[in-house]
Specification:
It contains eleven helices and six strands. With about 300 residues, it is α+β, with helices and mostly antiparallel strands. It has two domains: about 130 residues, Beta Polymerase, domain 2 (2-Layer Sandwich); about 140 residues, Up-down Bundle (Four Helix Bundle (Hemerythrin (Met), subunit A)). Strands 3-4-5-2-1-6 form a six-stranded mixed β-sheet. The radius of gyration is 23 Å and the shape is globular.
Length: about 300
């Protein structure tokens, strides 16, 4: 089968879905449906299908042959809405996400309202391609403005910090044991996700309520504080014990000043004892490795 372009893929999807009685609507989402940061040469295509039952499309990939030759496909959870999607790499490198939303769930949302995370997704842009349930009329009635920014409570702020500092010690212990994989996963995944939460909050509290931090670190280089971007250059590690210690300490330094500035801006308590206790333990464990002391 010949390779297809993104435009042809969208056309083929509309032609395929139109006569199928179990498909109630098809929507184009993501960069190819928005004007802010629109699609470029690196963008995929995001298609959401409202179906009677998602399982046939998730269990089998045979239906994809209607669109063109594909090389790779797998199923994973969607970023929002708690559903599943099939990701596909077509011949030539074109990639697409097909998410499947049960009609019963969409019908319920149309009656009771769209959850905030789903509304945020639609705020980015959408285009209805197939509509058998009057979905476009409903979507046009959604509020145009994004939901108002609500800073975390003092308790929620402390929870993120406690989580981060606990795992700083956890990563240090794994390093002392020689478990580089686990230590790196902790430092460059779990702790970085908590750091990202702090970076997003930092950007929001130091700008107006409409300041856009996107999600999942998207376009972070465009909206984060330049000092943070400079700090991130030192915060990721090679798969090497010495470099992991360096990156762990750099990540801790970055998280510390970012959250201190947030606390000062919001009038929140910054827990120095938590920071100091965790930092002292990490430095103690780091210094022991040179002396060969047991954990």
């Amino acid at each position: 089968m010949s390779q297809v372009t993104y435009e042809q893929l969208i056309e083929k999807c509309v032609e395929w879905a139109g006569p199928r009685p179990d498909i109630h609507a098809v929507m184009l989402l993501g960069s190819r449906a928005r004007t802010d940061h629109p699609a470029d040469e690196w963008s995929d295509v995001d298609i959401a299908l409202v179906v009677a039952n998602p399982q046939p499309y998730l269990k089998s990939a045979d239906w994809l042959m209607s669109f063109g030759e594909f090389w790779i496909t797998f199923v994973e959870p969607t970023a929002t809405a708690n559903e599943m999607e099939r990701r596909v790499l077509f011949a030539g490198g074109l990639d697409a996400d097909f998410s499947f939303i049960p009609y019963a769930k969409v019908n319920e949302m149309m009656r009771r309202g769209v959850p905030p995370d789903v509304a945020e997704m639609f705020h980015r842009g959408w285009r209805v391609l197939v509509d058998k349930i009057n979905l476009e009329t409903y979507l046009r009635q959604l509020p145009v403005s994004r939901r108002a920014f609500q800073p975390p409570s003092q308790a929620e702020f402390l929870e993120v910090g406690n989580d981060f500092w606990y795992h700083a010690v956890f990563a240090a212990k794994k390093l002392r044991r020689g478990e580089l994989w686990v230590a790196k996963a902790c430092c460059d995944d779990h702790m970085k996700r908590r750091l990202l939460m702090a970076i997003e909050l930092h950007a929001r509290v130091f700008h107006d309520a409409d300041y856009d931090t996107w999600h999942g670190g998207r376009f972070l280089e465009q909206w984060a504080d330049p000092r943070i971007l400079a700090g991130l250059r030192e915060a990721f590690a090679h798969y090497d014990e010495d470099d992991l210690w360096r990156a762990l300490l750099a990540t801790m330094d970055l998280f510390r000043w970012v959250t201190k500035e947030i606390a000062e801006c919001l009038g929140y308590l910054y827990p120095p004892s938590v920071d100091e206790y965790a930092t002292r333990l990490v430095w103690t464990l780091a210094s022991q490795r040179h002396r060969g002391d047991p954990l």
